[in-house]
Amino acid sequence: MKTYCEFTFDAAHSVHPYSGLHGHTFIVKLTFGGSVDETFGWPVNLYEVENYIKELKCGHGTGLDHCNLDLNADIGIASLENITTYIWRLVKARFSGLEEVELRRGMPGSSEGCIYRGEVVSADNLAA
Q1: Which sign, positive or negative, has the C-alpha torsion 60, 13, 77, 4?
Q2: Domain extents for the chain?
Q3: Which residues, 6+ apart, have CB-to-CB distance to 120 below 8 Å?
Q4: Contact 15, 79 (CB under 8 A)
Q5: 123 phi/psi in degrees, rounded to 5
Q6: Using one digit for the tens of pLDDT, what is the confidence trace for 29-72?
């Protein structure tokens, strides 16, 4: 059984030297798995996830919504990939059943994004 939750946030970022400061509506899909609750049949309580999403979006100084992602040192360069792994780290620390984070931007039919499943990527892996 897989359960997922989607949410959006609006934020600015840049990826120098490729782009100056600009903004997007980002769409995040969190997918959870693992053993299911015997009563409810879910691998994660989405009510708890939704409450945590509110914290992610509006956290004091670390919120994702209506901010400049470049200013968050924990993200690093605010590429789609770095934003995705940042969200992964935060959500995985709270919900161990997290299996995938998908981050998209753009309009349906003309979007771009990435999917992260907790893989560890290092310079050694890239050279192989």
Answers
A1: positive
A2: 3-127
A3: none
A4: yes
A5: -60, -35
A6: 999 999 999 999 999 999 999 999 999 999 766 799 999 999 99
Model confidence, pTM = 0.90
Give me 78's structure tokens. 């605010």
Backbone CA torsion sign across 111, 34, 51, 47: positive
What 3-state class would DSSP assign to 113? strand
Extract the tokens encoding 79. Answer: 């590429």
For residue 110, what are its two tokens? 């003309």
Q: Could you report the per-residue pLDDT of 1-10, keeping only the tens digit for each?
A: 999 999 999 9
Give the domain 3-127 fold: Tetrahydropterin Synthase; Chain A (3.30.479)
Q: What tokens does 35 get?
A: 């053993």
Cβ atoms < 10 Å from Cβ of 70: 17
Q: How far is CA 32 from the centre of its chain?
A: 13
**How many residues appear in the chain?**
128
